[in-house]
Amino acid sequence: MAEQRNMWNWEVSGFKPRTLEAEQPLVRRYSISTTRENSELSKQALASKVHRLKDKIKLAKEDCLELRQEASDLQEYSNAKLDRVTRYFGALAEKTRKLDQAALETEARISPLINEKKRLFNDLLTAKGSIKVFCRVRPLFEDESPSVVEFPDDCTIRVNTGSDTISNPKKDFEFDRVYGPHVGQAELFTDVQPYVQSALDGYNVSIFAYGQTCSGKTHTMEGSSYDRGLYARCFEELFDLANSESTSTSRFNFSVTVFELYNEQITDLLSESESTLQKIRMGSLESFIELQQEKIDNPLDFSRILQAAFQRRGNDISKLNVSHLIVTVHIYYNNVISGENLYSKLSLVDLAGSEGLIAEDDSSERVTDMLHVMKSLSALGDVLSSLTSRKDVVPYENSMLTTVLADSLGRKSKTLMILNVCPNIANLSETLSSLSFSSRARNATLSLGNRDTIKKWRDV
After folding, report:
1. 20 to 30 Å CA-CA from 457: which of 197, 252, 266, 278?
2. Residues 267-301: pLDDT tens digits?
3. For a pLDDT cut of 90, what percent of the chain falls above it?
4. Which of 183, 197, 186 is nearest to 135 (CA)?
5. Alpha-carbon distance 326 to 269, whole Å?
6. Are 324 and 387 in contact (CB under 8 A)?
7. Under a CB-based contact definition with an 8 Å cutoff, are residues 305 and 256 in contact?
8. Is it the case that residue 20 has pLDDT exceeding 90?
9. Which residues are known binding-site members?
10. Binding-site residues for ATP, please?
11. pTM score, two decimals?
12. 11 bridge partner residues
């Protein structure tokens, strides 16, 4: 049996039989000792990190304490600054209050002086005459004959009547001021300016441009783009004076009305179908009209409103020559110290042509228009005559023109008439008539107008 067990040969050619070597101890991939060493190293690293973090925390705490201290210092500094600024503004407010109080007290003290100045200025104008007449001669046109007028001095105009029946054919007319053809709008306004000041002082003022057609009335009032007339110059002066005289406790406000008077009928040139403008009354308490008034804050507004009104009026020359245009600036003044509230107005009137001759071939409509013009001018003359003659009854109601301007004619109001004259010989008759008209208005010895002519054509 033993032999049978050894009969198998397990050796295979090409293979080396495995020899059993001495058993060696098993070695672990990770030994316990290595793990311990690594654990100790990681603990040291962690301790180092913790130590570093502690240092950083300590530094952060120190920085935080420093920042808190800086914030506290800044808060204290800002509180101190705020306290100083508060005290400064408090002192400034107190100074401002004292200055305002002083200004109010000063204005209260000088207010009577300002009123006295206004009164004295008004008395000065009144002493010179509440109704004054200036005469202005326009230049000759290129196709006109030589001039028949001369200017001996600043208050006299001399007209060569060309009459051979008298020894001296030249006739003199005296006015408050006479302007030759060389005088521009600026020089004319120099003498008009006191009336603008009077209007701002609280007195009603009316300025009329009178004369025959083509004598320069409209040019005197409207002027041109390079030489402005009385409309623009008067309001610019009002605006400048108001700005210089306004204070923290007083103020001026302006509004304007514009209307046309044609055949005793009023046409409001600022009225529109859906207008929201406030209305104002003009005329006496017994007889007045209501007109739209538009507020104006500067000269540009005034110019814009006037241009719109002129466009609504139209360009029909035949109608413009027989209608009156009335532009009125309404002046409102308020003083919170004295409680003074004043209202006054400056009326600028471009009258219709004053020619009184009616040709036989004139149409009935033309005759009617001219008769209405003559009637209104005659009524104006009667009013001026009654005022300067100090009559008890003044016939304001004889014409719509004098009715509307009743509160600007007479009493404490001022009236200035600017007579415009044609210097050529072709208009000599009308020139003499206009000069006589205005001369009588200034002297107030006769009524203006020609009632015989009016009666004659009324009968016709």
Report:
1. 266
2. 999 887 455 667 888 876 777 788 889 999 999 99
3. 29
4. 183
5. 10
6. no
7. yes
8. no
9. 211-218
10. 211-218
11. 0.73
12. none
